[in-house]
Amino acid sequence: MSDPKETLVEAEPEAEAWFGLLDVVILVALAAFGVWWVLSNKRKQAEQAAAHKSYSLQPTSLATQTTDNSFLKKLKTSGRSLVAFYGSQTGTAEEFAGRLAKEGIRYQLKGMVADPEEYDMEELVNLKDIPNSLAVFCLATYGEGDPTDNAMEFYEWLQNGDANLTGLNYAVFGLGNKTYEYYNEVAKYVDKRLEELGATRVYELGMGDDDANIEDDFITWKEGFWPAVCEYFGIETMGEDVSVRQYKLTEHSDIDPSRLYNGEVARLHSFVNQRPPFDTKNPFLANIKVNRELHKTGDRQCMHLEFDIEGSKMRYDAGDHLALYPVNHTELVNKLGKLLDADLDTAITLTNTDEESSKKHPFPCPTTYRTALTYYLDITSNPRTHVLKELAEYTKNNKEQEMLRLMASTSPEGKALYQKWINQDNRNIIHILEDLPSCKPEIDHICELLPRLQCRYYSISSSPKLYPTTVHVTAVVVEYETPTKRINKGVATTWLREMKPVDPEKKHLVPVFIRKSQFRLPTRTQTPIIMIGPGTGLAPFRGFIQERALAVEEGKPVGETILYFGCRKRSEDFLYEEELTEYEKKGVLKLHLAFSRDQAKKVYVTHKLQENAEEIWRVLGENNGHVYVCGDARSMAKDVHNIILKVVQEKGKMSEQEAIAYVKKMEAQKRYSADVWS
């Protein structure tokens, strides 16, 4: 073998001439490639920027922006100066924003309603370019102090950016629930953050409490809001509030039935031609495979339901929620149609008279009145005051008309009457029309006024590790007598109760989708857990227990799994008794049971927690375990929180402030999780 050095030296003269030419070729090629790559990359970036809306930390001037997501352009071209943004999960915040925008006309402030998800919120920087401009934010707080889905991007922009909002005039009204720890957290933050960024607060933060009377909170806030706006801008009221219809009616005498919506949420025929991904606007039609009663005796009912999601490509985890779109009962729909003297099978379209609005119809159109009242409109909730105000215009009897006008007013007498006659007596639109027979509104106006029927959320009571193609739900049938001796029934559970899969050939289809949750088991199976879930609060823990039991079967190390469950009587409403006792026999589960009515003195899960302070501290304090609470937020969850604080303070030998900080840290680390409702 020759010496490499020697070979290289011998070849040197010939190689010198050849590689000199090659170098030139390579350099030219590289230069050409470099120019192409730079230009190509710039073009890709430009395309991506056009395709995706994104928020920069410090927005530049957007005065000339004319894209469809420009609320500034819409305000300018239509001569408006008021924009009412909403962050809404159930539709109430959107409704409040709509009412404010509509009322603005009285105060020389023509308004528009805007979904922050649909618009470029960086334009707030330049809203000051419009004289007497005002941005109002109606924002709900959801989950554990989180913004609603449609307000998330805007909220994060406020958190991460430092835009100069000097010259922006604003006001905020929050929608929350005092039974939750993070009451109106989103509204408080936005109100404070806008001021920090230089904006001017025109009126104080308003906070509505859905656990009390959020309608009263809203109209009370408005009483001070509008005078403050008038004073700030130096404008005067244009007199009495005039009723203005928001939607124009078109009746279709001859329309192809295939063009009519029949309950679809967004896309026509989406229930016939199902295609993933499935979500809030495109639910999957799941067949109910199992519907069995869980209560052994008694006059109450609790259903165990199993929804078939095979082929949907939907995935869930233990702790997630199943959302479903309910249907109003045929009997109620027919009753309302009769009270309104309407032909429910008339095909209609309601079109927004505001051409600039992104909301063209109040619900999918064209459709029939029957479909609208069955699938799209909430006909069983308590109507708000603005609905009563409109109803008064259709009422012939003077006494009945004055009563409606009084309840729609902001006077103390009117508020008290509304609270008693509507809220406490639990009257819906049907009850009002029955009790005030001279009130005969037009059905299309009723369809405009009633809120949208919202989907219902249920904690999933199964684990995908055992049931990958079915989702289990545990639901109490809602039925109760009102002070007017009427029987009110829950929309969803009344509908579901009738879906008994007796005939395997007949399907019971329900529009559903999965909503992800933060309610999760620890990643390490050896981490001990305490679960506190009286009644149907047991639901997510059934899935948790299934997963822990499976881990035991697979030979994995599994920490203590402790459940606190309570109900009225062991012989009546002990949910999943056989399953739970079997898990206990196998050593998978430790049970602490409280049957409130099985003895003279009532015993609840909170009593059982107090009895087991040593165990609680051992799991949470000494072994870094997790605690989960599911159920009633109004009293149970608060009581549990206080007991855990006390245990941490006493057993951990801490001061009150140290114990509070310890529990707060547990929450931040997701070691203390709650899935509660009021």
Automatic annotation (TrEMBL):
Keywords for the protein's UniProt record, in alphabetical order: Endoplasmic reticulum, FAD, Flavoprotein, FMN, Membrane, NADP, Oxidoreductase, Transmembrane, Transmembrane helix
Chain ranges of the Flavodoxin-like domain: 82-226
Subcellular location, record wording: Endoplasmic reticulum membrane
Residues that coordinate or bind NADP(+): R300, T536, S596, R597, K602, V603, Y604, V605, T606, D639
FAD-binding FR-type domain segment(s): 281-522
Topology class, membrane: Single-pass membrane protein
Single GO molecular function: FMN binding
Spans traversing the lipid bilayer: 17-39
A cellular-component GO term for this protein: cytosol
Enzyme class at the top of the EC tree: oxidoreductase
Binding site for FMN: 88-93, 140-143, 175-184, 210
HAMAP family according to UniProt: NCPR (MF_03212)
Function: This enzyme is required for electron transfer from NADP to cytochrome P450 in microsomes. It can also provide electron transfer to heme oxygenase and cytochrome B5.
Protein name in UniProt: NADPH--cytochrome P450 reductase
